[in-house]
Every structure is written in C-alpha cells, then in structure tokens.
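User: I'm writing a tutorial on reading structure tokens. Could you give me a worked example: one chain, its sequence, then its tokens, then a sentence or two explaining what the tokens reveal?
Assistant: Sure. Here is the example chain.
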Amino acid sequence: MTAAGKAFNLSNITPLSPLQFIDNLMTSFATQTEQIIQAEVDKFKGSGPNTHEIEIYHEDGIYQYVEHYCGLTDEDVLLEDVFTEFFPSLNRRSAFQTIYSRYEVELQALCLRYQRTLAGKGFDKFDGTGIIKAHNFIKEHFPAIDKSSEWESIDQLRILRNRCIHHDGKVYRESGTPFESIARLIEAKPGLFHHDGQADTDEYGNAKTYSDGSARRKGQYILFESGSLGYSINAFKAYTKVIDQCFRQAS
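And here are its predicted structure tokens:
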C-alpha cells in the first residue's frame, strides 16, 4: 500500500461517538453555564451588596444597617456564601440534571438503533425505566459492561441525580448514614463534589479533610463545583464509547 493509501486507510480513523452531536451540545452548554456563573460571582465580588440605613431613634442617633443584594439581606442569609457558593452550586445542579436527562433519552434511542442489528428481546421488553432500562438492554448483549468502571460512574450519577430531584441534593439517609456510591464519588472527586456546611472536626478538634487535603464539611447536602458538569459529560462519553466498541465488535 502506498503512503497515500495508508493515509486514507479507514482503519486508522478513530470512529466518532454515536452521540457525538449530544457530546458537543452538552459540552457547549456546560461551558456557557460556567461562564454565566463566574460572571455573577465576579459581579457580586466586584460591586458587593448595598447597605440600607434604617432609622431607629433619630434623636439618640440609633440606626440599623442592613446589607442587601438581589432581593436578599444579611438578616436572611450569609450573602457571600449564598452568592459565591450556594447559588453557583444550585445552577450547576440544575444543569447536571438537564445533562443527565438528555443523555438518558439519547441512550434509550441508541438502544433502539442497536436493536435493529442485535438479535434477541426487544428494548421495550426490558425492565426498568430511563438509564436502568437502557443498561438492562446493554448488559444483556454485552455482559462485561455491567461490571465496568464506566457503568459504575454512570450509576453513581444516577443515584446522585435522584437525590437531587427527589431530596434537594441530600446525600444522607434519614438514619444519618451516607449513600455509599455518592460518598465514594465525593472521596474520589472532592474538588468537584463535596458536602455543604461548616468545616468538620474530629473528637479532638482537629480538622477533617477530604482525599485531596481540602477541609471536609459536615453538612448533609452536596455542592457542585466548577468542573463537575464536565466530569458528568465525560462519564457519559466513556460509557457510550465502551458500548459502541462492543457493538462494533459484535456487528
């Protein structure tokens, strides 16, 4: 084969993901989300809250001062915490739920496409809904994926998504015990996901830390940091890639 022939050998070309368009779309969405969040944080840090003077007793020179920003006051909340941490996390959490839902729909559509080639039970006959239904179809045809690290990451995100939608992001059970899969996610990626609340300490008053050395929080709700959306997208991309590789080998 000539050098030109080798250059155009299709076997040398990395196949595109079957969800390439969705990958690009969600990556752009995540990028824009982070830009908007950062702009709002910078705006708060730059202009800060306004101070409102309330006259209590003019004759005695007694006044009350209230800081306010975007409809909230420092009597309601800790303004800096809300506008530099809580609201950014809330926006990312909403975006995460959108990203998850979009991939959930697209993975089910992908299963229907693969069904035309693969023999056996039809996709609609499998148990479960959403991601679980798609994965039940996938592991029926490609059993090795069920024990893969790619699926473990998606399953973590599935549990996290359900806790966000149904329990406002609370990652502890009513008994006070954590959900193990989310606890593993936080331990592995504390720069992307961590607890809310104040810094945690042990019985001797020493600061507890996460695996990266950052201060551990003792709240029961999860916070999403910058990079968490990209991590979620990459997890879906990796899962889709192993599915597509198995499908190509079986076709």
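What the tokens reveal: The mean pLDDT is 92. The two ends are 27 Å apart (CA to CA).
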